[in-house]
Design brief:
Largest sheet: 7 strands, mixed
Helix content: 10-25%
Strand content: 25-35%
Mean pLDDT: 97
Structural class: alpha/beta
CATH architecture of the largest domain: Alpha-Beta Complex
CATH class of the largest domain: Alpha Beta
Number of strands: 18
Shape: globular
CATH topology of the largest domain: Quinone Oxidoreductase, Chain A, domain 1
Number of helices: 11
Distance between the termini: 22 Å
CATH superfamily of the largest domain: Medium-chain alcohol dehydrogenases, catalytic domain
Low-confidence stretches: none
Bound molecules: nicotinamide-adenine-dinucleotide, zinc ion
Oligomer: single chain
Order of helices and strands: EEEHEEEHEEEEHHEHEHEHEHEHEHEHE
């Protein structure tokens, strides 16, 4: 039966028109899908990119949101591993487990995941409608709604003792940041790591670097409160700009510079890459996790320096994580008190307050803003 609920839509993505909360209809779950009742959804910068147009969409309207956690209400045909009552987190990239990439440990490159910005469910049809018109879903999900029909490849079962409003962050920001440091950068014991932009993603790169054994972690962010939180969660030093960080890291490493640099600023502008390159030591790794404006073709990078000093430039999607391995690992780290989630939620909002939530993100007031559903 069709479920009538509400959701935050963008009718004109790319025009900064903001989110409109209105009634939507959800079809029941089809083969390999589940209906979830969400407890919470994080406000990730990637959803803001849909509104600004940095990430262009081939369809409209779209139901946003991709970082959620909730309870399975109903399962569609051929769902064997989940049942009503199970707790799950959503993953913004599904992993099918059988394609070439999943089979070789590159779940974040899953062939099914290649369609997450196409607006449709993996089978090419729509589950969401508004006034009879099909509505696209961010990341096969659309977590800016109390109910979501999700493919089982995009949900991961978690134990019931984990508060769902905190577990939601494990849908995107936490694994993306943590994995950027642990997997993509390959942080090793004793390393010097610089994280550029310590918001919802970057603060978890700080946590990842700490857990991987980095000795020196430098948080770079223009917002003082973000630097303070990063220092509470593992950063040993902080700087308010890349220029300041360059001087700081030069002093800390006696001119060698950082083993790993991770770019997690709100927008991956090309002119940030060069300074990050100079922060990276010879043979070191610069990871780009920030989403950049899609039409940006220029990157300011001193290629001679990169070649002569054998540096590595590494893009990273979803922290290069394998969700089915890493999500349970992150849950266990949280349970043991090694990974902070609680203090990452700076403010909570009702769905109707979503535009305020994104305004607070833009103004630097939140590590993560989270929508709570009743
Ligand atoms: N690659 C992926 O799989 C993936 C997944 C999730 C998010 N993202 C992207 O990661 C980026 C960060 O997302 P978020 O949710 O943490 O955003 P956020 O807005 O919470 O945090 C961004 C931080 O960058 C800081 N910042 C802005 N300009 C800076 C600069 N020049 N130098 C240093 N710091 C700067 C801001 O003050 C803020 O604290 C976004 O571009 C987002 O789209 C990528
Ligand atoms: Zn995200
Ligand atoms: Zn796959």
């Amino acid at each position: 039966m069709t479920l009538t609920t509400k959701g935050a839509l963008l009718w004109e993505p790319g025009t900064k028109s903001g989110w409109s909360v209105e009634e939507i209809e959800l079809d029941p779950p089809k083969r390999g899908e589940v209906l979830l009742k969400l407890a919470a959804s994080g406000l990730c910068h990637s959803d803001a990119h849909l509104d600004t147009g940095d990430i262009p969409l081939p369809f409209a309207p779209v139901l946003g949101g991709h970082e959620g956690a909730g309870v399975v209400q109903e399962v569609g045909p051929e769902v064997h591993d989940l049942q009503p009552g199970d707790h799950v987190v959503t993953t913004f990239l599904p992993s099918c487990g059988t394609c070439r990439w999943c089979s070789s440990g590159m779940g974040s490159m899953c062939d099914v995941g290649a369609g997450v910005l196409g607006g449709k469910a993996p089978d090419g049809t729509n589950r969401i409608h508004s006034g009879g018109k099909p509505v696209g879903a961010m990341s096969f999900l659309g977590t800016f709604s109390p109910y979501v029909v999700a493919p089982i490849t995009g949900v991961i079962k978690i134990d019931k003792d984990i508060p769902l409003d905190k577990a939601a962050l494990i849908g995107c920001g936490v694994p993306t940041g943590w994995g950027s440091a642990v997997h993509a950068a390959g942080t090793e014991v004793g390393d010097t790591v610089v994280v550029v932009g310590t918001g919802g993603v970057g603060v978890n790169a700080v946590q990842g670097a700490r857990l991987a054994g980095a000795s020196t972690i430098v948080a770079v962010d223009p917002v003082a409160f973000k630097r303070e939180m990063a220092e509470e969660l593992g950063a040993t030093h902080s700087a308010s700009s890349l220029e300041e960080a360059t001087e700081l890291v030069r002093g800390l490493t006696v001119g060698v510079m950082a083993d790993r640099v991770i770019l997690t600023a709100g927008v991956g502008y090309g002119n940030l890459v060069g300074p990050c390159g100079f922060l990276t030591r010879k043979g070191g790794t610069l990871v780009i996790t920030s989403a950049a404006p899609a039409l940006q073709g220029q990157v300011d990078l001193n290629l001679l320096d990169f070649v002569m000093s054998g540096k590595r430039l590494q893009g990273s999607l979803y922290g290069s994580c394998n969700a089915r391995v890493d999500v349970p690992k992150l849950i266990e780290l949280y349970r043991r008190g090694d990974l902070e989630l609680d203090r990452l939620v700076t403010r909570t909002y009702a769905l109707e307050e979503i535009n305020q939530g994104f305004a607070d993100m833009d103004a630097g007031r939140n590590i993560r803003g989270v929508i709570l559903f009743d």
